[in-house]
User: Which sequence fits this backbone?
């Protein structure tokens, strides 16, 4: 579903474990990180508590570059709090069946109708 990110070097080593709605965020993140250190690689990409989580490594980066990448990744993870994980439309944090998700009104209505 989200396989169209595999052409990006930053994500070449990971299986993206979150919905396609965050692909734009991930694509932008890869471009910015690559401009800082082209050898940096994501090691894990997933959804946790309704938010995007990106783990990464940059063994060749300087301390300054590591700090900058850390800030860039945190900023992009924060963007996921307002974008539907399913479709990328404006969304917000909600709870479905005891699980925290970030979704637009439509996807929330659709999914919450299954879990009561
Ligand atoms: Zn949606």
Assistant:
């Amino acid at each position: 579903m989200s396989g169209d990110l595999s052409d990006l070097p930053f994500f070449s080593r990971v299986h993206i474990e979150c919905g396609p709605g965050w692909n734009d965020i991930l694509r932008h993140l890869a471009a910015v990180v690559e401009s800082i250190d082209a050898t940096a690689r994501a090691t894990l990409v997933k959804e946790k508590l309704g938010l995007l989580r990106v783990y990464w490594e940059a063994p060749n980066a300087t301390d300054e570059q590591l700090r900058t990448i850390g800030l860039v990744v945190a900023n992009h993870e924060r963007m996921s709090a307002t974008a539907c994980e399913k479709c990328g439309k404006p969304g917000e944090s909600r709870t479905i069946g005891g699980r925290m998700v970030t979704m637009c009104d439509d996807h929330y209505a659709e999914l919450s109708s299954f879990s009561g």
Notes: The chain has one domain: 9-115.
